């Protein structure tokens, strides 16, 4: 059977060695994810591979990109294929040379991950 709650407030014991420990983190500052869509970044679209154009291949490639605090990508991986290796490779090659607005924790730039969709569509 549960004990009834005490109506008398008692202070919790404080361990003096951990009361002001430097390991205690302040409340987390807001996190902003990396981005690639800002016009000022001037990221060129990928080149549509000739073989893909000739064969009428279209599709969307989804890339998972690790963006350093500097805004440079250091890993561009395939999260979802277009179904055509030449389109996937063209997307990966283009995004490898892009610049990103890095993730931020408060005012500080930090490393982070972002997913980048690249659409290849003929006749547009």
Report on the architecture of this protein.
The chain has 124 residues and is α+β, with helices and mostly antiparallel strands. It has a domain at 31-38 and 49-120: TolA/TonB C-terminal domain. Helix content is 15%, strand content 27%. The protein has helices spanning 50-55, 85-96, and strands at residues 31-32, 59-67, 73-80, 103-105, 108-110, 112-120. The strands form two sheets. Strands 1-4-5 form a three-stranded antiparallel sheet, with no helix packed on it. Strands 3-2-6 form a three-stranded antiparallel sheet, covered by helices on one side. The protein starts with 30 loop residues before the first strand and ends with a strand. Residues 1-24 have low confidence and may be disordered.
How are the strands of the largest sheet arranged?
Answer: 1-4-5
Count of DSSP H/I helices = 2
**Largest sheet, described in full?**
3 strands, antiparallel
Helix content: 10-25%
Q: What would CATH call the architecture of one domain?
A: 2-Layer Sandwich
CATH fold call of one domain: TolA/TonB C-terminal domain
The overall pLDDT, averaged over residues, is 81
| The named CATH superfamily of one domain | TonB
Helix-strand topology string: EHEEHEEE
- Count of beta strands: 6
* Residues in β-strands, percent: 25-35%
Radius of gyration: 24 Å
pLDDT < 50 stretches: 1-24
Q: In CATH, what is the class of one domain?
A: Alpha Beta
Distance between the termini: 72 Å
Shape annotation? elongated
Q: What structural category characterises the helix and strand content? A: alpha+beta
